[in-house]
Amino acid sequence: MHLHRYERIWLIIGGATLVIFLSVVGVQAFATDAHPPGSLVTVDPKTVTQEAPFNKPSLTQVGPKEYKAVMVARMFTFQPGTMEIPVGSTVHFQITSPDVVHGFEIAGTNVNMMVIPGHINRATYTFNHPGEYLIVCNEYCGTGHQVMAGKVVVK
């Protein structure tokens, strides 16, 4: 098969670019041990409500202006539903679901997670401004999805 000279040049350039790209990705992934975050921690979704710490969802103070929020997202509620903290507090969220996939978004912040049954998802956020921050489920989870909400009250 006869290829035009310029066509052959572009095929060589494209092939070389592909080899360079795959080499860079390979070096990044294996030689420098740079991987995407993958701290996959799981819990049995059938027994999530009996296992600590998800058997008692709560907001607990772990230091000065530092809190840990252990939460369970289930049809059609977040537990705990309302949390009150002082301005400037950092909250470490830890959430899972026993039933279906839910979303966890705190409006006005960059906290946005997908809550998958049996997977423990984590996020940390510092609330520097007072107000009520709405927690919404942004993944359709059933017929009562529109009423699934909670809030963080920052005083």
From TrEMBL:
UniProt lineage: Bacteria, Bacillati, Bacillota, Bacilli, Bacillales
Protein name: Cytochrome aa3 subunit 2
Domain of life per record: Bacteria
Catalytic reaction list: 4 Fe(II)-[cytochrome c] + O2 + 8 H(+)(in) = 4 Fe(III)-[cytochrome c] + 2 H2O + 4 H(+)(out)
Single GO cellular component term: membrane
Cellular compartment(s): Cell envelope
CDD domains referenced in this protein's UniProt entry, alphabetically: ba3_CcO_II_C (cd13913)
Keyword set includes Repeat: no
DNA-binding listed as a keyword: no
Source organism of the structure: Planifilum fulgidum
